[in-house]
């Protein structure tokens, strides 16, 4: 369990259904050494989707948590349902969050449920990191997505991506190092 005196930071993963939220959560858990096997929703072996119905349908129905032990903090990662039918389950989770990662599919852009999530996060005053996923799919226009984010969510959004992330090598490098960058942000938060 680790040191009980370490601060605990609750981070929720939220997204419109099929944005890749649970697969991204799995990757973060794997890269931090929290889990030993990288699972995926589409192969029905995700660590966080344990319910038989979730695995059969390929969607998250119940919020799940995983604990990531860091040197100076304990992160509780909460993976929430993305399907609008299970919004009540997701909204209950908002009450305990310190931060949220809003995952948006680069292929699909901002969906109506994404805007609902954004409004809920604002209502609960939860600081948000936006992660645009699936940018490696053909037809994804990074500039269009960034404009959508600024027009539909907030003009205060800042792009922290690598400028030439369209290049597959750079994209894979950014994905590989996302968990490291994210953990550095959390560490900086602890120092302030």
Characterize this entry briefly.
The chain is α/β, with parallel strands linked by helices and 192 residues long. It has helices spanning 21-31, 52-57, 87-94, 112-123, 142-152, 168-191; strands at 8-15, 64-69, 74-79, 99-105, 128-133.
3D architecture notes:
This protein has 192 residues and is of the alpha/beta class. The protein has six helices and five strands, in the order βααββαβαβαα. It has a five-stranded mixed sheet, with helices on both faces. The chain is globular, with a radius of gyration of 16 Å. The protein starts with 7 loop residues before the first strand and ends with a helix.
Descriptors:
five-stranded mixed β-sheet; 6 helices; alpha/beta; 5 strands
Multimeric state of these chains?
A: single chain
How many H/I helices?
6
Which percent range fits the helix content? 25-40%
Which strand-content bin applies to the residues? 15-25%
Structural topology:
Layout: E1 8-15, H1 21-31, H2 52-57, E2 64-69, E3 74-79, H3 87-94, E4 99-105, H4 112-123, E5 128-133, H5 142-152, H6 168-191
Parallel strand pairs: 1-3, 1-4, 4-5
Antiparallel strand pairs: 2-3
């Amino acid at each position: 369990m680790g040191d009980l005196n370490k601060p605990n930071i609750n981070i929720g993963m939220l997204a419109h259904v099929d944005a890749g939220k649970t697969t991204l959560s799995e990757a973060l858990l794997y890269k931090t050494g929290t889990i030993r096997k990288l699972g995926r929703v589409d192969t029905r072996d995700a660590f966080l989707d344990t319910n038989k119905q979730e695995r059969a349908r390929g969607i998250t129905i119940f919020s799940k948590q995983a604990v990531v032990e860091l040197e100076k903090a304990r992160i509780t990662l909460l993976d929430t349902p993305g399907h609008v039918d299970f919004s009540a389950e997701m909204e209950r989770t908002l009450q305990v969050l310190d931060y949220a990662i809003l995952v948006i599919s680069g292929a699909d852009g901002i969906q109506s449920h994404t805007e609902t999530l954004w409004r809920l996060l604002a209502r609960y005053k939860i600081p948000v990191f936006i992660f645009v996923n699936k940018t490696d799919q053909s037809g994804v226009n990074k500039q269009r997505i960034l404009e959508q984010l600024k027009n539909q969510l907030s003009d205060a959004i800042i792009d922290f991506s690598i400028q030439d992330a369209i290049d597959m090598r750079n994209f894979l490098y950014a994905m590989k190092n996302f968990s490291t960058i994210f953990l550095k942000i959390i560490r900086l938060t602890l120092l302030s």
